[in-house]
Q: What sequence folds into this?
């Protein structure tokens, strides 16, 4: 899943410090429920603020350690966090919607993308999930304010559109019940 706008409040000016990092209500509980459903929770986040000189690797590590700690306090687990530190102009393989980091996770955790869900708050996140062969869930909790008309014009459309990560988790629960 994505991080900014999906698990935490996004900022058009980048989340640059732990002081600016604010979890979306229900995000931590949602991760615990996903764990209980048997899902690996792997985060893929673009962090070009590093290459822009707005945040250090150290500060990003503090944010991710805090996120993992909050999830752990509720009995949940984030299996891994991958991030792309590169500027969009660098055309790297790890920047969403490319799937370099997801390919690493697929190999490391022996995942079948057809059984995975990519959850995110942007067109780029949906493209990432589609590029990897995952099911896709668009959460409308980010900065983008997409309209249904706009979403329907995307070449890669989300399979599901929900309000936020809590609703995405309810959807996963529902899918799990149908597959029993």
A:
């Amino acid at each position: 899943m994505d991080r900014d706008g999906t698990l935490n409040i996004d900022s058009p000016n980048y989340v640059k410090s732990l002081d600016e990092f604010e979890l979306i209500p229900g995000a931590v509980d949602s991760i615990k429920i996903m764990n209980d459903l048997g899902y690996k929770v792997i985060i893929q986040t673009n962090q070009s603020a590093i290459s822009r000189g707005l945040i250090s690797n150290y500060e990003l590590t503090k944010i991710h350690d805090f996120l993992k700690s909050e999830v752990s306090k509720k009995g949940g687990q984030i299996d891994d966090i991958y991030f792309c530190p590169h500027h969009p102009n660098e055309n790297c393989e790890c920047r969403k919607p490319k799937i370099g980091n997801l390919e690493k996770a697929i190999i490391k955790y022996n995942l079948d993308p057809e059984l995975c869900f990519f959850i995110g708050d942007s067109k780029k996140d949906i493209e990432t999930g589609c590029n990897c062969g995952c099911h896709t869930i668009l959460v409308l909790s980010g900065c983008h304010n997409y309209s249904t008309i706009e979403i329907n014009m995307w070449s890669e459309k989300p399979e599901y559109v929900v309000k936020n990560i809590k609703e995405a988790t309810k959807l996963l629960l529902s899918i799990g019940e149908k597959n029993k």
The radius of gyration is 15 Å. The helical segments are 27-36, 57-73, 100-109, 123-132, 148-153, 165-178. The CA atoms of residues 122 and 138 lie 7 Å apart. DSSP finds six helices and five strands in the chain.
